[in-house]
């Protein structure tokens, strides 16, 4: 399967948002939270990398959010792609998806780990259902709060949604939460123990949050996670 790059824009320093289209009338079917694998010929060899889809399902388009890994091979290649470029695409896969039927949940993300949660929220929030969803998103600097305007709109539009950006290197002007996301986990959960927690980001953060949740009494099937390194 082929995909064509429609647009590429800088979200934050070293982070890009890419929009692709699958040519023809074929619909790209996936569940929010799943990933696609892209393959390209780079430096004389075929290289494949997986990226979480950050857009909701519907039609033949999909969107990705990725960091530039300077010592990497694939992300610099994608950063330099121009609209109209083609790339090989494998159909979406993955099990990092919402429990069905969904229930109240806390999403914990750092960096590009926000991608699957953006897909889930765009898909789930308009459906209503009275769900209470909290997005706890950690990054270093205020300019790196990815999709901030979108999540602020969601917070205003949907009473059951909370958006808690957290900065580990805030400026003196920042009045929000500070430190690592782990420090705010207990506050986000409160006394609830009948919810699910979804975690996506770097291994150290994911493992730390999982450990804290187990200490709080959460069962294994209440914790879903995906690591990016």
Please, could you describe this protein's structure?
Strand 1 (2-12) and strand 2 (15-21) form a beta hairpin. This protein folds into two domains: 2-93, Elongation Factor Tu (Ef-tu), domain 3; 105-227, Rossmann fold (3-Layer(aba) Sandwich). The two termini are 27 Å apart. The chain has helices at 74-80, 115-124, 148-157, 185-189, 203-215; strands spanning 2-12, 15-21, 35-42, 45-52, 61-67, 86-93, 105-110, 133-139, 161-167, 177-178, 196-201, 223-227. 20% of the residues lie in helices and 36% in strands. The strands form two sheets. Strands 4-3-6-1-2-5 form a six-stranded antiparallel β-sheet, covered by helices on one side. A six-stranded parallel β-sheet has the order 10-9-8-7-11-12, sandwiched between helices. The chain has 229 residues and is of the alpha/beta class. It has five helices and twelve strands.
Quote the average pLDDT. 95
CATH topology call of the largest domain: Rossmann fold
User: Which residues sit in consecutive blocks of at least 5 with pLDDT less than 50?
Assistant: none
**Main sheet makeup:** 6 strands, antiparallel
* Shape call: globular
Helix content: 10-25%
Tally of structural domains:
2
Strands, total number: 12
What is the strand content? 35-45%
Distance between the termini: 27 Å
CATH class of the largest domain: Alpha Beta
Order of helices and strands: EEEEEHEEHEHEEHEHE
Radius of gyration: 18 Å
Gross CATH architecture of the largest domain? 3-Layer(aba) Sandwich
Question: Going across the major beta sheet, what is the strand order?
Answer: 4-3-6-1-2-5
């Amino acid at each position: 399967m082929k995909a064509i790059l429609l647009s590429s824009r800088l979200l934050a320093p070293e982070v890009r948002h890419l929009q692709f289209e699958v040519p023809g009338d074929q619909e790209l079917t996936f569940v929010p939270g799943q990933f696609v694998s892209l393959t390209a010929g780079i430096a004389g060899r075929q290289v494949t990398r997986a990226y979480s889809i950050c857009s909701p399902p519907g039609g033949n388009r999909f969107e990705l959010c990725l960091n530039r890994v300077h010592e990497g091979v694939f992300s610099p290649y994608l950063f330099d792609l121009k609209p109209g470029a083609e790339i090989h695409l494998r159909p979406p896969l993955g099990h990092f998806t919402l429990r069905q039927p969904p229930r109240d949940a806390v999403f914990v993300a750092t960096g590009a780990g926000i991608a699957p949660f953006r897909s889930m929220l765009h898909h789930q929030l308009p459906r209503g259902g009275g769900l209470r969803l909290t997005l706890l998103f950690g990054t270093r600097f205020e300019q790196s709060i990815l999709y901030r305007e979108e999540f602020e709109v969601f917070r205003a539009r949907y009473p059951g949604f909370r958006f808690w950006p957290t900065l580990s290197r805030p400026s003196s002007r920042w009045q929000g939460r500070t430190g690592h996301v782990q420090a705010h986990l207990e506050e986000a959960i409160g006394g609830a123990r009948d919810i699910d927690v979804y975690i996506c980001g770097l291994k150290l953060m994911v493992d730390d949050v999982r450990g804290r949740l187990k200490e709080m009494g959460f069962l294994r099937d209440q914790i879903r996670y995906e690591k990016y390194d």
